[in-house]
Amino acid sequence: MDLYLGIDYGTSGARGVVIDDEGNVQTEVRYPGQKLEAAHWKSALWSLLAAIPEPLRQQIRAIAINGTSSTVLLCDAAGEPVDAPLLYNDARGAVVLEQLRQIAPLNHTVLSATSSLAKLLWMSQQAFFSEARYFLHQADWLGFLLHGQLGISDYHNALKLGYDVEALQYPEWIEKLEISIQLPQVFAPGTPIAEIRPDIASQFGLPTDCLVCAGTTDSIAAFIASGAELPGEAVTSLGSTLVLKLLSHTRIEDARYGIYSHRFGDLWLSGGASNTGGAVLREFFTNAELESLSQEINPAKISNLDYYPLLKAGDRFPINDPKLPPRLTPRPETPKEFLHGLLESIARIEARGYELLQSLGANQVQRVYTAGGGAANSTWTAIRQRHLKVPVVTSANTEAAYGTALLAKAKASNQKDEKKFT
Question: Which of 355, 358, 352, 259 is nearest to 306 (CA)?
Answer without folding.
Answer: 352
